[in-house]
Amino acid sequence: MIVNKSDIASDNQKSLQDHQDKFDFLSNSLAKSEINVDDLVNKLADFQVAIPSWALGAGGTRFGRFSYGGEPGTLEQKMDDVGVIHSLTQTAGAISLHIPWDIPTDYEAIKQKAAQHDLNFDAVNSNTFQDQKDAKESYRNGSLSNTSDAAREQAVQHNIDVIEIGEKLGSKSLTVWLADGINFPGQGNFQSALQHTEDSLKKIYNSMPEDWSLFIEYKPYEPNFYSTVIQDWGTSFMLANACGDRAYTLVDLGHHLPNTNIEQIVATLMLKGKLGGFHFNDSKYGDDDLTVGSIKPYALFLIFNELVQGMQHNPQNPYPAWMIDASHNIKDPLEDLIQSLEAIQEAYAKAMLIDQNKLMEAQAANDVTLCQEIIQSAYRTDVRPILEKARLERGGALSPIKAYRNLKVRETLIKERGLHSVASGL
Amino acid sequence: MIVNKSDIASDNQKSLQDHQDKFDFLSNSLAKSEINVDDLVNKLADFQVAIPSWALGAGGTRFGRFSYGGEPGTLEQKMDDVGVIHSLTQTAGAISLHIPWDIPTDYEAIKQKAAQHDLNFDAVNSNTFQDQKDAKESYRNGSLSNTSDAAREQAVQHNIDVIEIGEKLGSKSLTVWLADGINFPGQGNFQSALQHTEDSLKKIYNSMPEDWSLFIEYKPYEPNFYSTVIQDWGTSFMLANACGDRAYTLVDLGHHLPNTNIEQIVATLMLKGKLGGFHFNDSKYGDDDLTVGSIKPYALFLIFNELVQGMQHNPQNPYPAWMIDASHNIKDPLEDLIQSLEAIQEAYAKAMLIDQNKLMEAQAANDVTLCQEIIQSAYRTDVRPILEKARLERGGALSPIKAYRNLKVRETLIKERGLHSVASGL
Amino acid sequence: MIVNKSDIASDNQKSLQDHQDKFDFLSNSLAKSEINVDDLVNKLADFQVAIPSWALGAGGTRFGRFSYGGEPGTLEQKMDDVGVIHSLTQTAGAISLHIPWDIPTDYEAIKQKAAQHDLNFDAVNSNTFQDQKDAKESYRNGSLSNTSDAAREQAVQHNIDVIEIGEKLGSKSLTVWLADGINFPGQGNFQSALQHTEDSLKKIYNSMPEDWSLFIEYKPYEPNFYSTVIQDWGTSFMLANACGDRAYTLVDLGHHLPNTNIEQIVATLMLKGKLGGFHFNDSKYGDDDLTVGSIKPYALFLIFNELVQGMQHNPQNPYPAWMIDASHNIKDPLEDLIQSLEAIQEAYAKAMLIDQNKLMEAQAANDVTLCQEIIQSAYRTDVRPILEKARLERGGALSPIKAYRNLKVRETLIKERGLHSVASGL
Amino acid sequence: MIVNKSDIASDNQKSLQDHQDKFDFLSNSLAKSEINVDDLVNKLADFQVAIPSWALGAGGTRFGRFSYGGEPGTLEQKMDDVGVIHSLTQTAGAISLHIPWDIPTDYEAIKQKAAQHDLNFDAVNSNTFQDQKDAKESYRNGSLSNTSDAAREQAVQHNIDVIEIGEKLGSKSLTVWLADGINFPGQGNFQSALQHTEDSLKKIYNSMPEDWSLFIEYKPYEPNFYSTVIQDWGTSFMLANACGDRAYTLVDLGHHLPNTNIEQIVATLMLKGKLGGFHFNDSKYGDDDLTVGSIKPYALFLIFNELVQGMQHNPQNPYPAWMIDASHNIKDPLEDLIQSLEAIQEAYAKAMLIDQNKLMEAQAANDVTLCQEIIQSAYRTDVRPILEKARLERGGALSPIKAYRNLKVRETLIKERGLHSVASGL
């Protein structure tokens, strides 16, 4: 299914005047604070977030899964789904493939499909946390950190294979999320597991083309419940430094212990030029993988404040790779992704509203009350008209969720694919 | 120092037109969704939050304290400070006394002072977590739960004394926060500590006048670090039920383990008619006692959603007592309280914007995406013009923080009281 | 496969003298502190813990599952596995069935099988967190709390069906673990979800035979990640009170927020006569379901201290139902269960070593140092000879893990059932 | 007060035979597993832990403090207290001074006092988290990270002063615990705070004598409740690397977010040669500063397992500085410290009992059950006779707590110093 610009435009029609009024009022109001709203709209419109290929089907928990009708059964269908989201939001201009769940069979066809939907291929993701059928070695006891040479070699080789697949599609980076770890004290040796991981990552790093980057993810727990080899940003940062200049840390919002100050980690990594990528989601307890902005929108805004600062003032840091990494257990996955994109844009827009000059002055004067007023003033602003404007200018929907429903996307997908289609992969 | 309505009015002058434009635009916009903004303004204006007598001086941590100039040295000066806050915000129409830190010497004078500032006397608070000079029994090993009969009796009697003081001032409720607990496994017996506490609370309850209420606070840890006798809402609720109809649970936002769903606790208590009072603050790690809304404003909004529902639909629950309970370690305490009041009103206003009928329909249809849209739409609205309007109608300041600074309140207080005055109590 | 007493006895032979020496030395040493070791051995031998029918196969996480050879494919095979464990440990004298995963087809055969292995049927467990094939109503949006009457009725009826199955086998209690909850703020109404749950539980309670008990489990999160209807012991306790005298709270060690003082909850429930059952496991982060005692053995000991006290001094509380509820992701499930049983017995034995009279005296004197000495002295004692003795007297193995391996149980199971058998259920 | 070896010896007399019996039995038993108990006793006897000068008086919380009779009022008296502890335990052979609380007035006298008690001077500690009387600059808004040049310079100079004091006493290292951080989002700039801190630390580092080491402590929160500049080991490690070879990370057990795997951090730091020091205490919720081993003794054992491995196999890491950093709110501080030392020695002894060869084999074979058996077997051993032996050989007490009481130390201290003496410092 393809959502046409003309369909979107006609759906926008009835809310257009209301949008225009609100945008003009807000625009005038912000202009008094010397905020250039046009510039803000452009930056928003340029901001593109990748959708991972595993996010288009219903997710689940260890207790089971409630499936959703019309799930995409092939990589092509997954790309169509991302195409729908991108048409409506104009913010999802990339797809991030997970290997081996989504290995292309016909690369040219896949690349044409991407071009048709105006999508880039973002970072490719390897998988060494599950055993594939007919695999010689098992990852039950680890992959890049395994005590067995053969298992480590298999895992390294898999990553090299993933890089090759990515090269054929135009990807420029590899994301390594390592589930490796142990469930019980004594089950493994911390030092040798770390050393093995470092050695394996170096091999992968050295196998990358020269214009590629390596993103090293970290996570404190799950699926291992006593220790994870790359447990925190400090470990990832250390490993990235050991690999080389094009190795970076990747931050996933849900991969932190309770109460972690994530925005501070972001600031540190960007100061040191080592923030490579960012996975968006939200959570209350652990790696809950909920819709972005659904639980802690203020924390997301504070993180974006650091991202905005870093993108402006830290030339030592590359432009980060953005991706949504959520699990859609209970909502229509496409609606969930649209809500996530809206929340990301909202946080980004609000962060750009912070008057950085005034804030620096207030910080220098240790005027704590005023610092808080400045931050909260930006956050309290209703930026929805600006988001609408950014989408409108690119041909997207004023309200993507409403348009998605008005245009009967899910109904059409179910008609096309059936009620009991099952997404490949997880 | 007294802040006059005329001074406030003249300070408001320069922002009045801007306020009016924003309020009108928002008002028109909300009217399209059939929201009665006048009604909302009235409810906001009626909402009054008590300021505790210990909140007017600089707080500290166990590592020390950085004092603030012009701190109030007497109960009268503390009331003056609350008067200033109330003049500017029109939301702080009550004071909550802490005994023995703030025992009135001349009750009539104190009552006149309250009337002059338009303040009520909210719940009175007892203190059995510190030893007072010349006290016969020590609370080192507990108060209402102490293994010693004499210590328990002294603690019960102190609460009865506090009630008597409250009666003379017109208070109608007693808040008991019990620090009792232990630092080490085995230090005390859980069952007997709980039984002693229940017995002691019953004695206090039975000593109250018939129109008084008892509020029982809970807290998981600090100042005891292994166990606290009243560790959670379940224990408080059980004790309140054991005492009788006019005993209630009091929720302090900071008194929960990491990740607790506080809004659900609020809903449960109101369903059962047992939410007596609410202490506002914010926190990231523990009982951090930060400015309300400074860390998790969305959680505050969700809590207010439950409070609004409960106030409308749970006649079994009394109107709760509201109080700010924060510690102003680093900001001017009056500015901090003003920011807290603003955040409370914002959350209250946004909660009232939720379209409850649509939400119920969406919930009944299990339309999870739509439920989220409805909730977030209310939250994303910029309600500051409504807050301004509510203050304006009562003679308060459009922007209380700006007015506080323009009117040079702190400078005047320092002039009046000196740079090194020290607040009584903590 | 059946493990014979004679095989065990001959395997014990080579360690018997070593055991006897250690037991005698410890026994003499404890006798000096007036501890009756024989009494302790008898109590240990009488302590029986149920094995749930879902625990005999390899568990998994949402990221996948690594299977184990020789998994039991039928209820009969599961019972054989419990039989093996019980033969070796003499502590696993009961099985707890999960319905609909393990519905007996031939009740008489199943009961004979149980008798043969010397097993009782403990509490039966219902399942309303997954949709069964051909179910009319889905539990995607809840079961006992669902907004739909039909879904609630189906869930209530399922529980009634489970009771009937249990009756046929001689079970005397039903455990209800309710996954009901929501993933997003606003997705459901807290008050009506709680009210529905209370009403549904009452219906189930009133359908039970008069000699049955209802155990109500609580859990803060997972598989729902914003709110769970029965989120804590306070909610479970409130619901149990609403149902009636034979409704109780069930505590699962892994179902708590970080840092919860679980032993205090146990003490409170036993004081109020409401601790119905206990699920053992261990965890570092969330509901990790690791081997009992593998992460926090001291906390387990402190919990057993409260259990021992409650069993002795709280006649108002029934004898609790004990069960292991762990997930064996990485170890041989039978070995994991044996290690869990060993840890439970160790904690129980050490708790019985606490000199309660001295402890009470020290508590009354507020001698905090001495209280800690008494508690730690019990904990520091190496009680393994006592555990060995308790097993030995009943015909169990001195070292169950070693015997399990020496007797080649897993190898035999793989031979009997194949390398790729898959456990029914999860 | 001085505790003489002869007094201790005569107090030991009545338990000597009992000790000898238990030691012999254990020794024989361990010999069968080829464990050289004499070697173990020697290592234990050599293990010395510093007592900080602020730990000899009663601690408190922000809610107040319950004082203890006979507190040391001067540095000399504090050294006497450490002398008492060392006499009894033979494990507290060092003192760690906190400046400016404990600046010596007569260096020669202090050094003689140390020699008399057989004490070394361990790391010196600076204090930039409180304002000292007559200080020109305030640390209210930070010290090494302050936006003000003057404040940073004052803080750097203070550290240089502390080094000079330490040099005169024979210390060889400086511990910097930095409370710097912010309470509210926006209050400060993360990047500039980190950069200032790095620059300040480099100045301090470069001012140290060439044989000195710098220990950089980290802590996630308290006394600041939104962000701390050096929030975790990763930040400390990064700063230590930036300073140079003799800058190290210092781990304090209480300075971690909930559920952190501390033993893994220890292993990583030792592998990289960067673990400089270790502060012992215990906690359930935050930085509770409870007696070592009173809450999570198994975690302490697992940490010691890594420390033992690192001391044996990581020559790249210096021998770490050991110190107890607890707050004695409710117990006699000397008794509390003695209990802490006992718990440290117990964990150390048990860690040395782990059969590392068998463990490595089991790890290589991925025999998870056996790995756990090996670890738990060491932990379950009652090592108290070994601890007694180690003390006995050096002239310490078989049971230091009992001896402390039998010798009436506290009573004597109260007689000498009075009931209301107050410890200098916190």
Sum this structure up briefly:
Four copies of one chain form a homotetramer. Chain A is of the alpha/beta class.
Low-confidence stretches of chain A: none
| Fraction of residues in helix of chain A | 40-55%
What's the CATH first level of chain A?
Answer: Alpha Beta
Oligomer: homotetramer
The largest sheet of chain A, given as strand count, sense and whether it forms a barrel, is: 6 strands, parallel
**Mind telling me the CATH superfamily name of chain A?**
Divalent-metal-dependent TIM barrel enzymes
What is the domain tally of chain A? 1
- CA-based gyration radius of chain A: 22 Å
Protein name (chains A, B, C, D): TIM barrel protein
Keywords (chains A, B, C, D): Isomerase, Manganese, Metal-binding
Biased composition (Polar residues) (chains A, B, C, D): 140-149
Region (Disordered) (chains A, B, C, D): 132-151
List keywords for this structure.
426 residues, metal-binding (chains A, B, C, D), 9% strand, alpha/beta, TIM Barrel, homotetramer, TIM barrel protein (chains A, B, C, D)
Structure in words:
4 copies of one chain form a homotetramer. The radius of gyration of chain A is 22 Å and the shape is globular. Chain A has one domain: TIM Barrel, CATH 3.20.20. Helix content of chain A is 49%, strand content 9%. The two termini of chain A are 23 Å apart. Chain A is of the alpha/beta class and 426 residues long. The first copy, chain A, is built from 16 helices and 11 strands. The mean pLDDT of chain A is 96. The longest helix of chain A is centred in the middle third of the chain and has 21 residues, at 149-169. In chain A, the strands form 3 sheets. Chain A has a 6-stranded parallel β-sheet. Chain A has a 3-stranded parallel β-sheet with strand order 1-2-3, with no helix packed on it. The interface between B and C is large, with 55 and 55 residues.
